C-alpha cells in the first residue's frame, strides 16, 4: 500500500486556518549534507561558507554579501525551537528554504540568485517570522527563479471549493454503485461490466491515488497486492475485486456482497467528507499525485483485473487533475512560467488518450505498443510539468 | 535457424585459407597518445580510490575522459569505461521542430552532466535532480554517444531523403534468436563513466528532461572490469576481448574504418554506423567446456590472450606459418573474423562492447553476456561482412544474439552552441 499521507485530516474539529503548512505531514526535503565537495562551483568549498545564524534574536547574522549565481550558506539554528529558514528577495519571493531545521542543527542552504537584495526569514515554530538584515547581491550571473510563497489562508477557499466538487463526484459514484448493484442482482454480466467501467472512470475523477481517502479509499479501490492470499483473499473488497469476479467467471450472485460493501464504503466516505476538511497541503500534493497514480498503478496494468479499462481510468484521472488545476490556477498561473505548457500538455494527453482505438497491455516479451508509449510519455511529461506546483504552493508560514 | 551442433559430426569444408603473409596489414594493439599531465578532461572529485586514471590504450577502462565537443563524437574512439548504460528510445515527437527541440534539450543536459559541479538548485520553483552524486557532481567523469535509428529518417520529420545509405532495421543472421523486446529503437544513447552512480544520474536526468519526446524501449547496463592481471579486460567467457581492431591513434585507419563519409549524405560525414547487439552468453554450458576447446574456438590463449601461434596478447596471429590451422583452427573466431588478408583488411571495425549481467532465465541459468558495440564507416563492408563470415562458427553454441539494432551516430557537437544532429536538421 502506498501512503504519502491521507488527504483527510484525522480530526474533524481541526479548522483549515489552524493548519500550519510547513512540515505538517509532507515529506520534508532532506537538507543537503554539510560536508560537501571541494569541487563545488563558486568557491563553495567546505569551510568557505558563511556561517549564518537562524533564530528569533539573530536571524541572518553572518551573511553580509554574495555574488550572483550559486550562493551557499551554512545556516545554524541557534534557537531552542525548530525553525524554517527561507531566503527571500525584497519583493518577498523565496529562492531557497531549509524546512525544517531543528534546534542547534546546521544545514547548507543553497540558492541560485540573480542580482538584487535579499534577506533570510527565520520562522521559528510558535513564533512570528523574523526577517534578517538586507544583503545586496551583485554580479552578472542570471540566477534562478524566486516564487512568492502561499499561505494556508490563501489556499483555504480553493480547498473548500475543491472538496465540495469532490463531494459532488462522490454522489455520482454512489449512483454508479447503485446501478452496478442492480445489474448484479438482475444477473446481467454485460451490464454489470459496463457499470464497473463507468464507476472506474468516476472514481478516477475523484483523484483517490496514494491513499488520498485513507483506508476507506483502499476498501473502495484497493488492489489485491496487500492481502496475504492475493486475489483469493476474503478481505479484499471494492471495485477491483468486483472487476476480478466479473472477468473471471465468478457468479454474479457471489459478487453482490462486494457490491453491497462498495455502497457501504462509499457512504462511509460521504460521512467522512462531510465532517472532515481536506488538508491544504495534501490537496496541493495531489496536483501531481493523481497522474503519478495513472503512471505507476493504472498504465502499468497493476490495477487491471480483466477489464483492460486503463484508458477509461486515465481519462477520469486526467479529468480530476484538470479540475484541480483549474481551481488552483489563480495561485499557480502568476507563479509558474510553465503553466501554459501544463495546460497544453494536459490537452494533448487527453486528445491522445481519446484517439487510441485499441489498447495492448504490455507483456514482458514484447516491446510496448506505439499507442502505449505515446500515452505513457504524455502522462509522464504532464506529471513532470505538474511536479513544481506542490513545491510552489506548499503552504508556508510568514 | 539450424545451429550446428557443438560437435559437428561432419568435417567442415576448408574455410578460406589464411592469405599467406597478409597478417601484418594492421596493428593489433595500437599505442595511444598519452594525455598531458594537465589534461583538462581529467575528472575531479571522487572517482575511485582504487583506480587512478591511467593512460589510454590497451583496453584500459580507467582511461582519461575524452572531450565532448568536437567534429566527431570522440567518445566513440575511447576504450570502454568501467560502467555504462545502453538505452534505446522510441521517439514520440511528431515533427521536425519537435525533434530539433528534443535533440537540443538532450545535448544541453548531456553537456551539463559532463560538466558536473553543483546542480542549479530549484529553490521552491520546482524539484531538484536525483542527488545521488551528492551536492557536487564529479566533473568530466562521463561520456555519451548518441545515435539515430532508421525511424529518424522518415517523412514525419522531413528526413526520408537524408538517411545514411546503409541504415536499416537490423538484419537477422542465421544464429540469432531475436526477442522483439530487445530490438529496435529510434535513438540509442550510451552513457559511460567510471562509476555506476554517475551513469545512473545521467540517465535519470536525461529522461526527466525528455519525457514527452521519447520513451525508453529497452535498456541494458554494462560494465568493463579492470584487466586481470593486465592488458585488455576480459569478457564473461573469461577471454580478453577487444584486442584486435583499428588503431585509434592512426588518423588514416580511423578515417577509413570508423568515420563515414564517401557516398553518404553530406550531413553524415564524420559520423559512424553504430551496431549494438545484445549477445547472451551461455556461461553454464561454457564452463563445462575444457579450456583447450575454448581456446581453439577463439584462437587465443585464455590466460594471456596470446594468439595460439605464440607470443603475447599483442602479438599478431601468424597465419602464414599455420596455413592448415594446426595452431589457430581455420574456423576459430579470430581467424574467421579477421583473416588478415588484404581483401579483408577494410572489413575491420571498432569494437566497443560492454559485459552485461541481467538476471536469470526460465531454467535458472544466468542471463549475462555482451552488449556488442561496433563502429563502422560502412556497415555492410565491415560489420555485416564479418558477421556473415562468422555464421556457424563453433562459438555459436555458446553465444546467442537476442537483440539489437543498427544506428548511425551523427558527427560531434562542435561547441557550446551546437547540438546533436544540427547538420541533419539544418
From TrEMBL, chain A:
Chain ranges passing through the membrane: none
Residues making up the signal peptide according to the UniProt record: 1-26
Keywords assigned by UniProt, alphabetized: Lipoprotein, Signal
Family of this protein: Belongs to the EfeM/EfeO family.
Native organism taxonomy: Bacteria, Bacillati, Actinomycetota, Actinomycetes, Micrococcales
Natural source organism: Flexivirga caeni
Domain of life: Bacteria
PROSITE patterns cross-referenced by the UniProt entry: PROKAR_LIPOPROTEIN (PS51257)
Gene3D superfamilies: M75 peptidase, HXXE motif
Compartments where found: Cell envelope
Domain Imelysin-like: 161-387
The protein's name in its UniProt record: EfeM/EfeO family lipoprotein
UniProt KW rRNA processing keyword: no
GO cellular component, one term: cell envelope
UniProtKB/TrEMBL annotation, chain B:
Organism superkingdom: Bacteria
Family assignment from sequence similarity: Belongs to the DyP-type peroxidase family.
Domain Dyp-type peroxidase C-terminal intervals: 233-413
Region forming the signal peptide: 1-33
Origin organism lineage: Bacteria, Bacillati, Actinomycetota, Actinomycetes, Micrococcales
Cofactor(s) essential for the protein: heme b
InterPro entries: Dimeric_a/b-barrel (IPR011008), Dyp_perox_C (IPR048328), Dyp_perox_N (IPR048327), Dyp_peroxidase (IPR006314), TAT_signal (IPR006311)
Recorded GO MF terms: heme binding; metal ion binding; peroxidase activity
Comp. bias intervals (Basic and acidic residues): 294-304
Pfam families: Dyp_perox_C (PF20628), Dyp_perox_N (PF04261)
Domain annotation Dyp-type peroxidase N-terminal: ranges: 73-223
Coiled-coil intervals: none
Keywords annotated in UniProt: Heme, Iron, Metal-binding, Oxidoreductase, Peroxidase, Signal
UniProt-annotated stretches for the region Disordered: 294-328
GO cellular component: cytosol
Annotated SUPFAM superfamilies: Dimeric alpha+beta barrel
Descriptive protein name: Dyp-type peroxidase
NCBIfam families registered for this protein in UniProt: Dyp_perox_fam
Organism: Flexivirga caeni
